[in-house]
Amino acid sequence: MSTVAESADRYRIEPTVLQALRRPRLLTREVLAGLVVALALIPEAIAFSVVAGVDPRVGLFSSFVLSVVIAFTGGGPAMITAAAGAVALVIAPVSREYGADYLIVTIALAGVIQVVLAALGVARLMRFIPRSVMVGFVNALAILIFLSQVPQLVDVPWAVYVLVAAGLGILFVWPRITRAVPAPLIAIVLLTAAVVVFGLSAVPNVADQGELPRSLPGLLIPNVPLTGETLQIVAPYAFAAALVGLLESLMTAKLVDDITDTRSRKTREAWGLGVANLASAFFGGTGGCAMIGQTMINVKTSGGRTRISTFLAGVWVLILVVALGDIVGLIPMAALVAVMILVSVSTFDWHSIRPSTLRRMPLSETLVMLVTVVATVWTHNLAIGVVLGVLAAMVLFARRVAHFTTVSRTVDGDTARYRVDGELFFASSNDLTTQFEYAADPAHVVIDLSRTRVWDASTVAALDAIVTKYEQRGTTVELEGMSDASASFHGRLSGGLGSP
């Protein structure tokens, strides 16, 4: 009988938590994947704390709480949720202008909003994100991951470049030797040992990024007045943080689904994120969402597949910064830069920019991808890029479909027959009235709508206008062939829309 691990490799069937706990090989993989993610999370959590205007310890504790809670409440396995840069950018003004207590209230309210939006079914909106936007999202993510490492490669000792090159070499070669131990972990250990052995004290390390905590987090009740004024201050930031966090988490879930051939529960992921942010707030933490780069490290680079790796990523963060902070502080940033560069390269959809692909792909699809990439990289905000990409896709789709609508005319004695082909909605029906020969037509006109469908009020208004124009000339008009749905919709609105 084949093992679960063999089945997972052969048929892409992902193991459950219980299966991983019963199989030492799978469990070892999950434990080590969580450790690698934690090592990569620490410097980013510190950096995002600085962006949010809070103490680095706040970001580290938030990452611990968010990862542990989402491991139980999230909608998909192996996703990593922690203090995130996109959320930090949104909430930074609250911390800067009103202080930490108002920031906690903002995060708590954002969590409540996410739970409410989940109950309202916001996760179902993911079906309206087209593939071209998803490809642009992935490519922009890869570019942002790479760009985020550039500051670590500017004005640094020459040894940093040697260490990064050595780290990339290890990351590419080690998987050919064995996959039992994740290559990123080997690279981090070996490069840290090299820095210590050769006394490369000038090389920047994790300790240089900020102070690591020495104690466990505790519950914290914010000292703010529970008034309408407080709500007025925090509500706009909370709503923005809730939307940004939800969008990034749901997009990450979709990306993980594609990589692992699984299907996550998006609604559960939405309310699970809200619960995790509430928990983070009451431990005095900042807000977060799915960390796409760390999720890729877990799923793609380290082979994490269950909630165990997610849970242990948070646990490892706490252990490493509280109990082993001095050792963690020695890790050279060059090692983490190498890991993130590999993540960037492996995340980018290189197939999407091949000349052969671009020649086959409709120009509109390529434009949507480019809009998503440019908007995301320009603003450094994945949520803005996705929203603009979806809007571009809607506009280009409406424009393309509008040109598929045609009107053909035949005359038989005293009857002119028009046949409408294609979908009728606002983009295609706005010029529908110009395609009829009112003066030249005989006394009876038939408009055949059997090969189209009436989708909106704009179309009903256009049909009413056509009928009115003919009646003013004494011509009778007959609409025939409408489907039951179109006839019902038309009958409900016809004559009641008035003049535009």
Automatic annotation (TrEMBL):
Keywords: Membrane, Transmembrane, Transmembrane helix. Residues 418-484 form the STAS domain. CDD domains: STAS_SulP_like_sulfate_transporter (cd07042). Signal peptide: none annotated. It is a multi-pass membrane protein. It comes from the Bacteria. It is found in: Membrane. InterPro entries: Membrane-Transporter-like, SLC26A/SulP_dom, STAS_dom, STAS_dom_sf. The chain crosses the membrane at residues 31-52, 64-91, 103-126, 133-150, 156-174, 186-207, 230-250, 271-293, 313-346, 367-398. Coiled coil: none annotated. This is SulP family inorganic anion transporter. It comes from Microbacterium psychrotolerans. The lineage of its organism: Bacteria, Bacillati, Actinomycetota, Actinomycetes, Micrococcales.
